[in-house]
Amino acid sequence: MRNKIRAAVIGIGLTAVSVLATGGSASSHGYTDSPISRQKLCANGTVTGCGAIQYEPQSVEGPKGFPAGGPADGLICAGGNSQFAELDDPRGGNWPATKVNAGQSYTFNWRFTASHATTDFRYYITRNGWNPGQKLTRASLEPQPFLTVPYHGQRPPSSLSHAGTLPSGKSGKHLILAVWTIADTGNAFYACSDVSF
């Protein structure tokens, strides 16, 4: 019996070491709350029927390298994680949206539950004519981020804000995709925020 318990403890320890060594998600990490992200709307109960993401809004982690790499089209808001598929559901274009103005100065805010060495933060926005009733694809987004914040391998504090300017020439409903790229793993964190100009 002792050998079985000892073997189980060793097995659990090796699994934990393996997850950490490969950059796997052993704990949770971060999300945007300004503009409020879909995962935060689920966590605070504003949106219901969200599944597992309501308990861990900080866990939307997927492959880095967006847009050349990263999650597949239609799976971007969930970071390619099937357990968070509710984030990719457009809900008929009815996600609550933060009211903003084209060309305005805006402060983007992240909340972190675990700090990682960071390459940068990038913010993308949907093209004019985007259909908010469809899943997010690369073709839905402007090809270049409208804001990039280099972070040079530093680790962010528990809360971090970036000042930027929202693109001009936007009206109606749009989606902002925030990507937090990790420097020392193969992953990034993704957060989709619905906005209304």
Automatic annotation (TrEMBL):
What are the recorded GO MF terms, alphabetically? monooxygenase activity
Which stretches make up the Chitin-binding type-4 domain? 29-195
Top-level taxon of the source organism: Bacteria
InterPro entries listed in its UniProt record:
Cellulose/chitin-bd_N, GlcNAc_Chitin_IntDeg, Ig_E-set
Keyword terms of this UniProt record: Monooxygenase, Oxidoreductase, Signal
Coiled-coil positions are none
Name the Pfam families for this protein.
LPMO_10
Annotated signal peptide: 1-21
| Family matches, as CDD domains | LPMO_AA10
Query: What is the protein's given name?
Result: Lytic polysaccharide monooxygenase
Q: What is the native source organism of this protein?
A: Streptomyces coffeae
